[in-house]
Amino acid sequence: MTDLGAMYIGAGLAAIGVGLAALGVGNVFGSFLEGALRNPGAADGQQGRLFIGFAASELLGLIAFVVAILILFVVKK
Amino acid sequence: MAGDINPMEQFQVEPVFGHHIVLGGYDVSFTNSALFMVVVFVLLALFMAGGLKRQLIPGRWQVAAESAVGFIDDMMRVNIGPEGKKFAPYIFSVFMFILFANLVGVMPIAIVPHLHTFAVTSHITVTAVLAFLSFGIVLAVGFWRHGLHFFSLFVPHGAPGWLMPVIIPVEFVSFMVRPFSLGLRLFVAMTAGHILLEVFGSFVVQGLNAGGPLGWLVSLLSFVMIVGVSALELLVCAIQAYVFALLTSLYLNDAVHLH
Prior knowledge:
heterodimer; A: mainly alpha; F1FO ATP Synthase; 88% helix; B: 67% helix
């Protein structure tokens, strides 16, 4: 396997992490919606925490994307 | 064919007037990034100027400006408490700048030839400066208020003494990662969105070039995806601006009230 081929495979593997982060973000919003459907009055007050949870889980997915970009564009061929 | 369309080309920063202006070894030319920062500033100034009419029964523009200010004031009050009011101008400036910069970057005015917008926040240089500005304000507020007692931020209440050698480095690292995560989150969200839009745009162009009914079908479906992704991008623009402001206010709360 050439070096370039290994780099492309590595970038593809790093992108799997983005899909895993999608599970995490869906989890955050799904739990929020489930709780909001049970107690709609309390939902608006907790919206801030919803976005904090979204930001934290999205960040890890974006870090996986950054690893893929680093491999593709920053590592010397 | 695919080699002609490079998704990363849209992020190229180049001088607006054609040639670089070099001053003392530094390139100080007026770039497209600077141009769009000026555009964002002018739009923001117009928006706020229109909202400052101070009518007793406000018109729609005044209501829009007042609700934006009230939104940030509210967020400060909920996250920091009554002392949060003095940070509201900075948080409001950062929030509105990032919001307008994100939105200007997504505007599809490239229908008019040669008139494509540039997303200012799609560069780590811009978002890192904003993030370090926020982090610097957090550190300044923390040390001004509490002096060296600020370091007790890394020692949570009620943690047993034998755990300290583990907890303090972990807390310290997670504190120092904050500015990087703030800047990185905004930068990657914007860059990923724009790359996605450009990839679908390249599908439209290549489908039309290929011709035939299959090519036209691919172009049409890709165009529909562009519309959908643009709607999602509008939401992501607003959410990323809000998340930046929200996290800055939470870090300020940590600095103002140590736990």
